[in-house]
Design brief:
With 318 residues, this protein is an alpha/beta fold. It folds into 3 domains: 3-99 and 199-230, D-Maltodextrin-Binding Protein, domain 2; 105-185, Periplasmic binding protein-like II (D-Maltodextrin-Binding Protein, domain 2), CATH 3.40.190.10; 237-314, Double Stranded RNA Binding Domain. The chain is 31% helix and 21% strand. The chain contains 10 helices and 13 strands. It has helices at residues 12-27, 40-44, 63-71, 129-138, 151-159, 170-175, 218-227, 232-247, 294-307, 310-314; strands spanning 3-8, 31-36, 76-80, 92-96, 105-108, 123-125, 143-145, 165-169, 184-185, 200-205, 256-262, 267-274, 281-287. Strands 2-1-3-10-4 form a 5-stranded mixed β-sheet, sandwiched between helices. A 5-stranded mixed β-sheet has the order 7-6-8-5-9. Helix 8 runs parallel beside helix 9. The chain is globular, with a radius of gyration of 20 Å.
C-alpha cells in the first residue's frame, strides 16, 4: 500500500477537489492524507494585503504547494488546471488530468435569470480580465466590482449588495453543491472559458527528478498510482487549450478563452480574443487534422487568430 500525501488549499472548493481525488486513490487501494497549505493567493484575499514586489500574479495559488512538493512534504498537489502556468518546473509533471466538469461560465443573480435581463449599468463582480472583456462585448453598459475571496465569500458579498451579479465557473459551483445559484450557463461562443477551466491537474514530482531517499521506488510508484486517474480525452482537450494559451503569450491575465471538444471523428478548438474594453474581438474554430497532436492543434489555432489581428487586440492590454 502506498501512502500518498496530498497538498491542498483550505477553501471549500479546494478541499472538495482534494477529497474527490483522495476517494479515488483509496478506492484503488492507496492510503491518503491531506495537508492544508496556505498560499500567497489565499493571503492576497485578506484586507490590506500588498502583492510582493516583482510578483506579477502568476502562480499565486500554487507557489507554496509546489515548494512543499519539491521538499517532499507532500507527494501530490491537486490544482484547478486553469491556475497552472503553461510551462511547469522541470521537477514536476502532470501525472493525471481526470475527467473535466462543466467548463462554462455561470451567471449568478437572484432577481435576474440571464445577463440580458440585468438592468442597465448593472454591477458584475469579477476580477477576471477575460470575463470583463467578454461581458463588455455583450453588454458595453456593464460596470464591474472587484471581489476577493472563495466562492462562498463572493456569494455572501452578492447577497449583501456588493454587486448585482456574479460570473463564476460552473464547475466550482457544481462541485460544492451550489447549483441552485446558477441562473445561466453561457454558451461557449458567448463567454469562451479560460483554457483548462473545469479540469483538475494532479501534479507530482517527475520520476526523472525523484527525491534522493532510501526508497528509490517511492516517487515512481506515486506517479504510477496518480497516472491511473488520467482521462485521455480531457488530457487532449486541455493540452490543446493550453498550447493555444502558450502560443498567445501564456498569461492567465490575458483576455482570451479556448475550449476544445471531441467531434466524434476528431477535435474542434474554439478560441476567442477580446480587446479589454470589449469593443473588438476575434473568434475562430479550428478542426483537427488527421493524426494532429494537441499541441499542433493549439499552435495552429493561435496562428489563425494572429492572422485575424489577435495580437493587436492583446497589445491594448494594460
Amino acid at each position: 500500500m502506498t501512502l500518498i500525501r496530498i497538498g491542498s488549499r483550505g477553501s471549500q472548493l479546494a478541499l472538495w477537489q482534494a477529497n474527490h481525488i483522495a476517494t479515488q486513490l483509496r478506492t484503488n487501494g492507496h492510503s491518503v492524507e491531506i495537508d492544508i497549505i496556505r498560499t500567497t493567493g489565499d493571503r492576497m484575499q485578506q484586507p490590506g494585503f500588498v502583492m510582493p514586489e516583482g510578483t506579477d500574479g502568476k502562480g499565486i495559488f500554487i507557489k507554496e504547494i509546489e515548494e512543499a512538493l519539491a521538499d517532499g512534504r507532500i507527494d501530490l498537489a491537486v490544482h484547478s488546471l486553469k491556475d497552472l502556468p503553461t510551462q511547469l518546473d522541470a521537477r514536476f509533471t502532470l501525472a493525471a488530468i481526470p475527467p473535466r466538469a462543466d467548463s462554462r461560465d455561470a451567471f449568478v443573480c437572484e432577481p435576474y435569470w440571464a445577463l440580458h435581463t440585468l438592468p442597465q449599468n448593472g454591477r458584475v463582480g469579477t476580477n477576471s480580465p477575460r470575463r470583463r472583456a467578454q461581458l463588455l462585448s455583450l453588454r458595453p453598459d456593464l460596470e464591474f466590482v472587484e471581489l476577493r475571496g472563495n466562492i462562498d465569500t463572493r456569494l455572501r458579498k452578492l447577497e449583501e449588495g456588493a454587486c448585482d451579479a456574479l460570473v463564476l465557473a460552473c464547475a466550482g459551483l457544481d462541485r460544492i453543491g451550489r447549483t441552485e445559484s446558477v441562473h445561466q450557463r453561457f454558451e461557449i461562443d458567448e463567454l469562451t472559458p479560460a483554457p483548462g477551466q473545469g479540469a483538475l491537474a494532479l501534479e507530482t514530482r517527475s520520476p526523472q527528478h525523484a527525491l534522493d531517499t532510501d526508497d528509490a521506488t517511492r516517487d515512481p510508484a506515486i506517479y504510477a498510482a496518480v497516472a491511473a486517474l488520467d482521462h485521455p480525452p480531457t488530457r487532449f482537450a486541455t493540452d490543446a487549450e493550453r498550447a493555444f494559451l502558450n502560443a498567445m503569450g501564456g498569461g492567465c491575465e490575458l483576455p482570451l478563452g479556448a475550449h476544445c471538444l471531441s467531434t466524434g471523428h476528431g477535435w474542434s478548438l474554439h478560441a476567442q480574443v477580446v480587446q479589454p474594453d470589449g469593443e473588438q474581438s476575434v473568434q475562430l474554430t479550428v478542426d483537427s487534422l488527421t493524426n494532429e497532436s494537441a499541441q499542433e492543434l493549439g499552435q495552429r489555432t493561435a496562428e489563425g487568430l494572429i492572422r485575424l489581428g489577435a495580437l493587436d487586440l492583446l497589445s491594448t492590454t494594460n
